[in-house]
Write a structure and sequence with these properties.
The protein has about 350 residues and is an alpha/beta fold. It contains ten helices and 16 strands. The chain has helices at about 1-10, 10-50, 60-70, 75-80, 80-95, 125-135, 180-190, 230-235, 255-265, 300-310; strands at about 105-110, 140, 145, 155-160, 170-175, 195, 210-215, 220, 225-230, 245-250, 275-280, 315-325, 330, 340, 340-350, 360. Strands 7-6-5-10-11-15-12 form a seven-stranded mixed beta sheet, with helices on one face. A three-stranded mixed beta sheet has the order 2-1-16, with no helix packed on it. A two-stranded antiparallel sheet has the order 3-4. Helix 7 (about 180-190) links the parallel strand 5 and strand 6 (about 195). Helix 2 packs across helix 5 (about 80-95) and helix 6 (about 125-135) runs parallel beside helix 10 (about 300-310). The longest helix has about 40 residues, at about 10-50. The termini are far apart.
């Protein structure tokens, strides 16, 4: 009230000076606020434009040039001007609001007609159906990689979600035979911890990768001298309830006893992928010095092998690949066709798969 009375007592000139002072003060205050706002925007845009992973497709050629200059310190945001800042804020909003492409399943379930083997079939039909069964894929893995080597010594690994080798991954490898390529690549490239076993080779003198742990122990259908079941080995390594990313065994005809044990003890329940090589009786043609060995596979042999492998399906394992070993080719006395005594088979544990990971081939 006193200030108002004094104002009216002022002369005309003093009133004008007073009003100009007030207006100048308000103007300076507003200018200061605007500057702060612009500087804040400049700082935010510079941080976004230089430090964040910005989609190059959202930038013009001029903006790409400016971005490189900002990174190298040859340019700063104030030199670019407010129009540039406005454009970048628009691009930032565009980049953050663009929806991600929908997830596309990479596992394709095949609708194959069932393949059966029965005692009532002829010997030739049983043999034919057995090899057709080995070469039938139940699942197509769109990201199927041959790890280690493209031929003998490598193994197929499905890298499609939810499978693949993602650190920390665990691999159990049985049957090395001095071919370490699969084990080394799994450890060195994919950073997996690999447990390697083979009772038939000496402890390597060369230094292994730090993630490879070797033991002169073999996998078998029962525990014995130098041989242990898979469940025993898992328990000794503290992995009885641990997810195992890959189980591989190539053990020269001993796989049948191991498969029987795996099925009996269900020790593969936490294994995501299995790769193993099967061997028919003809495998022993390479060891003719052995006595009392039946070289040729008959109906009963094919029926046994078929039913053993097929039991994996009862636990929701599905075959996604196979590989015929060309070094094991022989002529069948039953069908007169070329066959192979040795097949690599690769299975996925579909218990780890939810419906959104798969599509069906019609």
């Amino acid at each position: 009230m006193t200030s108002m009375i004094e104002y009216f007592k002022m002369g005309r000139f003093r009133k004008i000076v007073f009003l100009i002072t007030i207006i100048a003060f308000v103007g300076i205050f507003l200018l200061f606020q605007t500057g702060n706002k612009q500087n804040t925007r400049k700082t935010n845009v510079e941080s976004m434009f230089v430090e964040e992973n910005f989609d190059e497709n959202d930038l013009t050629e001029e903006e790409k040039k400016h971005r490189n200059m900002l990174k190298t310190g040859k340019l700063n945001i104030p030199e670019l001007g407010l129009n540039f800042i406005e454009n970048m804020e628009h691009n930032k909003k565009k980049a953050t609001t663009t929806p991600k492409p929908p997830f596309k399943p990479e596992l394709m379930l095949m609708k194959n007609p069932p393949i059966f083997l029965t005692k009532n079939m002829s010997d030739g039909m049983v043999e034919e159906n057995f090899f057709n069964y080995l070469e039938t894929k139940d699942v197509i893995c769109k990201n199927d990689e041959r790890v280690g080597f493209q031929h003998d010594g490598g193994w197929n690994v499905c890298m499609s979600p939810p499978f693949g080798f993602h650190e920390p991954c665990i691999v159990y490898s049985f049957g090395i035979g001095n071919d370490w390529r699969f084990d080394r690549v799994s450890a060195r490239i994919y950073n997996c911890t690999v447990y390697s076993f083979d009772p038939s080779i000496p402890i390597p003198t060369e230094k292994l990768h730090p993630r490879i742990h070797f033991a002169q122990v073999g996998i078998a259908g029962r525990n014995g001298k130098g041989l242990k079941t898979f469940s025993t080995i898992l328990r000794e390594h503290g992995h009885s309830d641990t997810v195992i990313d890959y189980l591989k065994f190539d053990i020269e005809y001993m796989e049948w006893a191991v498969l029987e044990n795996l099925l009996r003890e269900k020790s593969f329940k936490n294994v995501k992928q299995i790769g193993f090589e099967i061997h028919t009786n003809e495998f022993y043609q390479h060891f003719k010095k052995l006595k009392d060995v039946k070289f040729n596979s008959g109906k009963d042999d094919f029926l046994y092998m078929y039913h053993t492998i097929r039991k994996l399906e009862d636990y929701n394992f599905r075959q996604f690949n196979y590989r015929l070993n060309p070094f094991g080719e022989y002529g069948s006395p039953i069908t007169r066709k070329k066959r192979s005594c040795c097949y690599e088979l690769h299975f996925l544990n579909m218990n780890f798969v939810t419906p959104n990971y798969t599509t069906t081939f019609v």
